[in-house]
Amino acid sequence: MAETLNDYLLRAGRLADGGLRFIDRGEQAVWVGWGEVRERALAVAGGLLALGVAPGERVALVFPTGVEFFAGFFGALLAGAVPVPLYPPVRLGRLREYVARTTRMLAACGACLVLADARVKRFLGEAVATARPSHGCRTLADLPAGGLPAAAAVAAGVRPRPDDLALIQFSSGTTVAPKAVALSHRAIVAQTEILSGSWHDDEAVRHSCASWLPLYHDMGLIGCVFPALARDASLTLLPPELFVVRPALWLRAIGRYGATISPAPNFGYSLCLSRVADADMEGVDLSCWRAALNGAEPVAPGVLRAFAERFARWGFSPAALTPVYGLSEAALAVTFSALDEPYRSGWYDREALARERVARPTPAGGSGAGAGEPGREIVSVGRPLPGFRLSVRDPHGRELPPRRVGRLWVTGPSLMQGYLGDAEGTARALRDGWLDTGDLGFLDDGELYLAGRAKDLIILRGRNHSPAEIEQAVDALPGVRAGCAVAVSWLPEGAPGEVLALFVERSRHATAAELAALPDACREAVLAATGLAIDRFEVLAPGTLPRTSSGKLQRSEALRLYLEGALAPPAPVTPLHLARAVARSSLAYVRWRVARRGKGLP
Amino acid sequence: MDTDILEGIAEVAREHLGWDGPLTGDMRLIEDLRLDSVRLLTLAAEVENRYRVRLDESDEAAIVTVGDLVETVRRKLG
């Protein structure tokens, strides 16, 4: 029984079909068995020890999807260090923002060394100069080779204990307040065993996974890599940037290599609907795909339905659709819906959900959700995984009965140790062995349904963003009241994914010209700073945004008011007002969808 | 500026980014074309695909406008 991630690596490579398959843009595959991954990692570990990297020190990794990432990641572990995967730069611009983020993340994790791809390394100069890791920034080739022989180094090196840190992952990349989630070997191994235990091999099937998810993302690394390693099985990997441009290559890889498991956030399924042509699917057989896991962002029921209908022609089974729930603070997965059944959804009274925080079942509506129906469709993300428990609580921390909406707390064997270097944040998130997820939800018949977020977090295309970063981008624009912008995202009914809204209060001294220029100026500033497109934008009178008694802006309350059509200077709420708000929000959605279609977007 | 390449990039923008307006060399990719990170990625990959060139990070760092992109492609093809 493995106790550490290192144990998995040291014993893997016994089976001929265990290893990594890297797919490039020409759909050529390069195979690297787990044994070879281990050999390469040992060489890196030898280099790290020769360099003087000490046990427990953090080694940041900035690599595209490829074998070098694995050599660096496992090399750091074998040397007793703690790997910290960071993301490589995005293409075409915004490098300043990339450097700023990377600098903050290097500082937050206290990295002693940055290992990077040769192409990426050239861009890290400024980040490295600012964060000053003691061993600088190196490519794998720059590591000293003549040190201790690698195997002896590992044998002599300190073997990590289960409670030592195994990995640090950032729950959201941000320049503002990066949260470095610290996970122990014990937590990672527990999560890996739970996931591996979900796939039972028999004579008929040997499970394998295909993934385009980034390796600095929990679903890509913890969800795909570790279970494949633990099971000594194969994992087919596509670079995320290739998937975004050619999503068909993901589906083709699943078919060609007979992958049974492949996860993606809602965004991935939605992108396939809009950007995969029938011609791309010629000869593809998706009948091997048993578990199309869908997590990391809210699951849109319309996308699930459309995906199942569209790809049934190529053998895709609706029973494969598996909505799941998890978060990086719990290492990854917390709940799974049933693996061999189609997904489930419930219809709940919209008004009761919003006003009374009660999930009152209503008759199922048509396939397209709309404001004309009293019910709102919510997809079940299933039941807790073995060892996990859920608790839905009211604002005073009291557990609520089923079908009451509250804040979701979870406990289980793979919770983080805390946020590295942030005792205050850790104390807020972890209490008496329970993790405050910051998500809102309810239980119905033992299954979890999510109903929004209480925490301040933007989730777009499966990736987390800090609202503060978006708000800061517009803070200094002429016409904006300083410190009075709020960014929120949510999944509108019937929409294929979350939308991003920005609410700004205008300055009391704003000129007419400044106000006229404000929408464009804000959109440009946010795009330039974060790469995110604003879907909805409101300029508000000074003092409109809700605040706490201490004057802090309340983002989730601002969103609630906006959705009720009440984000305006105090006005009486009447039934007519509400009806108008509902009509307005559904009209806004239709407009938004038409506009996106016009731009060729999903 | 190389007008053939500009026209080629305009075609990529129309086909893959849904850009239906005119495209001129002085337009900035982020601020004027309003490209978010996914669409920047799409533009880079589709331009590479069309011209069979490989842009690397050091090229890309200098690309701010459509004209910069045209110039980079021209240099690569040259």
Shape verdict of chain B: globular
| Rg of chain B, nearest Å | 11 Å
Q: State the name of the first-level CATH class of chain B.
A: Mainly Alpha
Number of domains of chain A: 3
Give the beta-strand count of chain A: 27
Give the quaternary arrangement of the chains.
heterodimer
The CATH homologous superfamily of chain B: ACP-like
Helical amount of chain A: 25-40%
Sketch the major β-sheet of chain A.
5 strands, antiparallel
CATH architecture of chain B: Orthogonal Bundle
What CATH calls the topology of chain B is Non-ribosomal Peptide Synthetase Peptidyl Carrier Protein, Chain A
Number of helical segments with 4 or more residues of chain B: 4
Shape of chain A: globular
Cα(first) to Cα(last) distance of chain A is 45 Å
What share of residues are in beta strands of chain A?
15-25%
Please render the helix and strand layout as text.
The complex is a heterodimer of chains A (602) and B (78).
Chain A: H1 5-11, E1 19-23, E2 29-33, H2 34-51, E3 58-62, H3 67-78, E4 82-86, H4 95-109, E5 111-116, H5 118-121, H6 125-131, E6 137-138, H7 150-156, E7 165-170, E8 180-184, H8 185-196, E9 209-211, H9 218-230, E10 234-237, H10 240-245, H11 248-256, H12 266-275, E11 292-294, H13 301-311, E12 321-326, E13 333-336, E14 345-349, H14 350-356, E15 375-379, E16 383-384, E17 389-393, E18 406-411, E19 418-419, H15 423-429, E20 430-431, E21 434-444, E22 447-453, E23 458-460, E24 463-465, H16 467-475, E25 480-490, E26 499-506, H17 512-530, E27 536-540, H18 555-563, H19 575-598
Parallel strand pairs in A: 1-10, 3-4, 3-5, 5-6, 9-10, 11-12, 26-27
Antiparallel strand pairs in A: 1-2, 7-8, 8-19, 12-13, 13-16, 14-15, 17-18, 18-21, 20-21, 21-22, 23-24, 25-26
Helix pairs in contact in A: 2-3, 2-7, 4-6, 8-9, 12-13, 16-17
Chain B: H1 3-17, H2 37-51, H3 57-61, H4 66-77
